[in-house]
Design a protein that fits this description.
The complex is a heterodimer. Chain A is mostly helical. Chain A has 14 helices and no strands. Classes of the chains: A mainly alpha, B mainly alpha.
């Protein structure tokens, strides 16, 4: 296992380096002078020069790149142009809220998807299966930026049961979690269904059925446990989609997380903060994928000996 | 399901092609006295915040969504097929370089890189298409690479090589055709992805800019009127969801026909 762990960690290094390089390149893709773009048309030449110097844009590209990578390695992502605060501090202040939202959304998705997928598998080909899978496809097709406002219209505006936006109480989390978790629930339900169907065909399940176990018991006691491995993998791999999804969900519900911080930074052309948020979300995504791979290796010995 | 999907997509294409000449109102003309009016017989989907007919804007928006989808899917699949087949067929160092680039781009979650690119390049329809192509080709490349790795060992490919056919001819005539069915399925599902991505970017204010009617921009405008005019949110969202569902039905149906094993 140690060898697998080391090999997997080494394979992650070039990916992280590539991600950092792309994020570094972002500011250089700004048409014209990035400092001018950040300050706007009305800025004086002196202000532009001062900002160029403070951002380090007046240095040779390779020096800028080395300095950027050095900063990333030390956990220094520069300073926010608008607030004057270190980017890392701005992000860490918001990350807790994003993590809570992402975890709640994943919990909602798992709670809905696993029973739905199992029921669809057990009643395969029947009306219940078709209904469950049509619901899942509708869930995938329904964009969060529509579902969110619809839920807000129904539960906040019409019924007045939940707050429309903001944060502070557990009630504020309900609508954003459902909005963010729906697409994941749909993907997981489809995956659970296929996985349970595969397991139900295995000889050990048929043997259990032949011994007189009911279909439900055979699923719950035998097939479900083994069908969980691919489902767990998908849950881990989909964490990235959930993280990206927070950008839209936090914007809809004014949730004070990293996603909303990113959109605010884009709107105010705070490029160091934009770079910081993108790098942070990407590195979290890579780390989650790594964790999923390692968990998969732990659950299935064939993977780590390959 | 495949028929339902085909019907939805055909209706959307018809709306995009013929719709603008059939709708009675100009999608950009404003009647401020009728702003936020709810659905009526004259305006079945109501009026928006500037007194524009929502149905006319939806029909025009279908054109934008389909143009983005088609452009992104065509360019991404072409680039993806080219790099995927080169990586898979030649292997070695070429494959290593292309695969590492794919790994890095895949390390960015979903639409994040597109948001980043549009944020620095500036919001516009062209930049949205460009950004979605930058992230879109990777999926096709990975798919085609896998197919090419298998195809290069096929006997008829080896026979073509023995007969003196050049690498370009082998890739185009013998390797790529084995990947076409899978690419077509991916492209159909990719249309759904591109439409959602364009609408997401426009919803965040990073996509198509007003007054051009885009479904995402219309949804964004509706956010400020959830209390007094929910129809501004209801209809554009419904249009996106139905069209995306149509492409998903079509893609799923095609996959089932091409690969019956995927049907379980």
């Amino acid at each position: 296992m140690a060898r697998y762990l080391v090999r997997r960690l080494i394979l992650t290094i070039p990916v992280l380096l590539g991600v950092a390089t792309l994020v570094f390149a972002l500011i250089h893709l700004v048409p014209g002078d990035p400092a001018q773009a950040m300050l706007g048309e009305g800025a004086t030449a002196e202000d532009v020069t001062r900002l160029r110097t403070s951002l380090g844009l007046d240095r040779p590209l390779l020096v800028q790149y080395g300095s950027f990578l050095g900063g990333v390695a030390r956990g220094d992502l520069g300073t926010s142009f608008r607030s004057g605060q270190p980017v890392v501090r701005e992000i860490s202040r918001r990350f807790g809220d994003t993590a809570i939202l992402a975890l709640c959304a994943m919990s909602v998705a798992i709670a809905v998807a696993l029973p739905l997928g199992i029921v669809a598998a057990v009643f395969r080909g029947r009306a219940l299966d078709h209904a469950a899978m049509t619901m899942a496809l509708a869930g995938i097709s329904m964009p969060s930026f529509w579902l969110g406002p619809l839920l807000a219209i129904l539960f906040a505006v019409r019924l007045g049961w939940l707050p429309v936006s903001g944060s502070g109480t557990p009630w504020h989390l309900v609508l954003p979690s459902i909005t963010l978790g729906t697409a994941l629930a749909a993907i997981l339900a489809r995956m659970t269904r296929s996985s349970v169907i595969e397991e139900l065909r295995e000889l050990y399940v048929m043997a259990a059925r032949a011994r007189g176990l009911s279909q439900i018991r055979a699923v719950v006691r035998h097939a479900f446990r083994n069908s969980l491995i691919p489902v767990v993998t998908i849950i881990g791999l989909q964490f990235g989609a959930v993280l990206t999804g927070t950008i839209i969900t936090e914007t809809i519900f004014a949730w004070p997380g990293v996603g909303r911080l990113l959109i605010t930074a884009i709107n105010t052309r705070d490029y160091p903060l934009v770079q910081g948020c993108i790098l942070f979300i990407s590195v979290t995504y890579v780390a989650m994928n790594l964790l999923t791979d390692l968990t998969y290796g732990l659950l299935d010995p064939r993977i780590r000996f390959e | 399901m495949i028929r339902v999907g085909f019907l939805i997509v055909a209706l959307a294409v018809a709306a995009a092609v013929f719709g603008p000449s059939l709708t009675p109102y100009d999608p950009t003309s404003q009647t401020l006295s009728q702003r936020l009016e709810p659905p009526s017989r004259a305006h079945p989907f109501g009026m928006d915040e500037l007194g524009r007919d929502i149905l006319s804007r939806l029909v025009s928006g279908a054109r934008i969504s389909l143009i983005v989808g088609l452009a992104v899917v065509s360019v991404s699949s072409l680039i993806g097929m080219m790099f995927g087949s080169i990586a898979g067929y030649f292997g070695g160092a070429v494959d290593d370089v292309i695969s590492r680039v794919i790994d890095v781009l895949m390390a960015f979650p979903g639409i994040l890189l597109a948001i980043a690119l549009v944020a620095v390049l500036g919001p516009s329809l062209t930049n949205v298409i460009l950004a979605l192509c930058v992230i879109g080709w990777v999926g096709y490349a990975r798919l085609v690479r896998g197919q090419a790795l298998r195809a290069r060992e096929f006997e008829y490919v080896q026979a073509a090589r023995a007969l003196g056919a050049g690498p370009a001819r082998i890739v185009v005539r013998h390797v790529l055709p084995t990947a076409f069915p899978a690419v077509i399925v991916q492209a159909t599902l990719g249309m759904a992805g591109a439409i959602i991505a364009e609408a997401s970017l426009s919803f965040l204010g990073l996509g198509v800019q007003p007054p051009t009617p885009s479904w995402g921009t219309m949804l964004d405008a509706g956010r400020s009127h959830l209390f007094d005019a929910p129809h501004l949110t209801l209809f554009p969202g419904m249009a996106i969801a139905v069209l995306v569902l149509g492409f998903n039905f079509l893609g799923d149906g095609l996959r089932d026909r091409i690969d019956p094993k995927a049907r379980i």
